[in-house]
Design a protein that fits this description.
The protein is of the alpha+beta class. 58% of the residues lie in helices and 12% in strands.
């Protein structure tokens, strides 16, 4: 029963019950009064000649009238108290339940939910409370995850920077101590120091880029791009460079005049990071990467598939996390900072797209990129 209905019934009863009880009391009072007077039983309890006669019957009548009045007032008070308790008992119980839930949430019990089965005004309130608890728990889980990621970030930065800095220090000490005592060896030492310094610079640059993108403050200059043309031009310009690194790129793009809205520099950066990743983790002398693209339901799909070794299935969802490498020992910082694919994911997210990975049955890794097509931009 809803609270409105309870209040409605209570108000009705607050009027009817006192009235009925008072009528009974008045009737009984008049009957008693008629026993002490010579007048017949009537509905008018007071008469002047009765009130001021000498035998005291008027005083008795007045006492009975006052008693009836007091009885009527007592009945009204008790009835209101009873019915008010009847109405607000339900409200108090529901409020206590909500108060207990709020206390549990404030004490950190974000998994607490109110199990409210009654169909009244408190049901949507309890549902809203549960929805709030779910959002708070989700937010808390996200905070915990971000805190864990932050700790892993600092640990990864420290690890990745330590190796090249240690090498720089060692080779610099070698030069100072005269270990490299010939022009050729000195040149070799200096070349190694420069190479390690470039590694540190690359890591810091990628970390800066990722941080700016993560905060949403990295400037972008999007424009209308023919995705098929952009893909083919990039592959044509970089094919020979990657071939020298042991990566053969084959383009099989079958779309034309399909436009997307994106920053051309970020689009090329996406391709560069993915191809560089194939080169870094290849275990064969030569690896082939096949690039295909097509439009499907207002979405451009770009698939980059290599015939390398692939990764373990449980590692696929983590490939696009910052500083994640398939090699848990992280003993090869020359394979990069672990930010490349995370930057790719952030760049695609800002384009309204997405990226995922899956293993190829015959061996290798398949990267699937999805970018929304500009409406009215295909022909």
């Amino acid at each position: 029963m809803t609270i409105k209905r309870r209040l409605f019934i209570s108000n009705i009863l607050m009027s009817i019950i006192p009235y009925l009880l008072s009528m009974v009391a008045v009737t009984n009072g008049l009957f008693v009064l008629s026993l002490f007077t010579d007048y017949e039983f009537v509905l008018i309890p007071f008469r002047q000649d009765i009130l001021f006669d000498n035998n005291g019957r008027g005083i008795l009548a007045m006492a009975i009238a006052i008693a009836v009045f007091l009885f009527f007032g007592a009945v009204m008070v008790l009835t209101n108290r009873f019915l008010t308790k009847f109405v607000f008992k339900k409200i108090e119980k529901s409020l206590e339940m909500l108060s207990a839930g709020v206390k549990r949430i404030s004490d950190g019990g974000l998994d607490y939910r109110i199990d409210y089965v009654n169909q009244d005004e408190f049901k949507p309130i309890c549902e809203s409370f549960n929805n709030m608890a779910v959002k708070l728990q989700t937010s808390d889980d996200m905070v915990q995850k971000n805190e864990q990621n932050r700790k892993e970030l600092f640990s990864s930065i420290s690890h990745d920077l330590r190796s090249p800095l240690t090498s720089i220090k060692a080779f610099a000490e070698g030069l100072i101590d005269g270990v490299a005592n010939t022009p050729e060896s000195q040149k070799e030492y200096l070349h190694t120091i420069m190479q390690k310094a470039d590694e540190v610079n690359s890591m810091v640059s990628q970390l800066f880029l990722y941080s700016k993108m993560d905060m949403g403050s990295y400037p972008i200059n999007p424009e209308i791009l023919d995705i098929g043309k952009e893909t083919e031009e990039f592959i044509s310009a970089s094919q020979e460079e990657y071939k020298a690194k042991g990566l053969s790129i084959k383009a099989e793009c079958t779309i034309s005049n399909v436009n997307i809205y994106a920053d051309p520099l970020q689009l090329r950066s996406i391709f560069t990071n993915i191809f560089d990743n194939s080169v870094k983790y290849k275990k064969k002398e030569t690896v082939t990467s096949k690039v295909s693209c097509f439009a499907e339901n207002d979405i451009v799909k770009i698939i980059l598939e290599d015939n390398g070794t692939g990764v373990k299935e449980e590692e696929l969802p983590r490939l696009f996390e910052a500083f994640y490498r398939a090699d848990p020992s992280r003993n090869n910082p020359q394979q990069g900072s672990g930010l490349g694919l995370a930057i790719v994911s952030k760049a695609l997210e800002r384009m309204g797209g997405s990226i995922s990975a899956e293993n190829v049955k015959k061996g290798g890794l398949r990267i699937i990129i999805k970018i929304p097509v500009m409406k009215g931009a295909t022909s």
